[in-house]
Design goal:
Blueprint (H helix, E strand, L loop, with lengths): L1 H7 L12 H4 L6 E7 L2 E13 L5 E11 L1 H22 L14
Length: about 100
Amino acid sequence: MADEENSAKAPEQQIAIQIDPHQGTGVYSNLMMISHRKEEFILDFLFLQPQRAAQGQSIATLRSRVITSPEHAKRILRALQENLRRYEESFGGIEEATDIPKIMH
């Protein structure tokens, strides 16, 4: 029976990842906004600057936008949950930031 279960599983695939030097350095983001429509999720990664505009509002700069399918968004969520669980097992609990404004989008 165990052999039947193993043969029913999809074989693992290896993917060669190519990355150019500019993308490889990454970008820092301390805020994210998510919007969606039926066909896609849009993840906007922003940098919330410590200084404020002259009118007193916060300033956030878009660093990267990722557009993905609902199915892949669900895989991203599951992967993040698993990695956060492993991180907290290794390094302890993570407290959520309280100094970032809540933005509904």
